[in-house]
Design a protein that fits this description.
Elements (H helix, E strand, L loop, with lengths): L1 H17 L1 H42 L1 H10 L8 H5 L7 H28 L4 H4 L3 H9 L1 H9 L3 H9 L15 H11 L7
Helix pairs in contact: 3-5, 5-9
Amino acid sequence: MAEWIGKILRDLFGYLGQNWEPLVAYATLVAAIVGYFLSRRRELAWKRTEFLFLQSQYIDKDTDMSEVIQILEDRHPTLTVEGVFGEASDVELPVRNASKHKFDKLLGHIDLIAYAVLYVRTLSLTEAESFGWYIERIVRSSFLRNYCADNGHQDLLTLAGKLKLLPGEEADGPRASVADRTASDHADSGRGRAA
């Protein structure tokens, strides 16, 4: 048995000694290919991160979207979601229509992000959660859910379902918010912040 193993090792080392140049070339080629793919993966991850920051910045800096966010937060001085979308609203029709146009801008933007997650798959659900607060505020209102369903923003509603943000769905407990789930995820993975 020992002679047999010794013969195999001698043959192997003999082969490696005679053919070391092609083996080094193959090893270099494999290392280059693996390095390329690892580098490309990091580059694409950075591009996605950059894209998410740009989209968030666009939402924050656009004046129409800023007004819509104020309405969603119930901090607008004169308008509410019900006032804009409710049937029995006392808000004048031109103001309602202008506000709906501004809402369409935000809803369309989030809907495109949903499309990137659901169909193109260039963004992950985890990455889409960076817009979870906006989505949660949108789907919290039955007026906005109906408006989305009736006006071509179904992908936003589908994404909200996948993120478990639709009213009545449980995430990590009854109606856990995106912030609560994210904090829980970070604590579970040991990456949470110290209190």
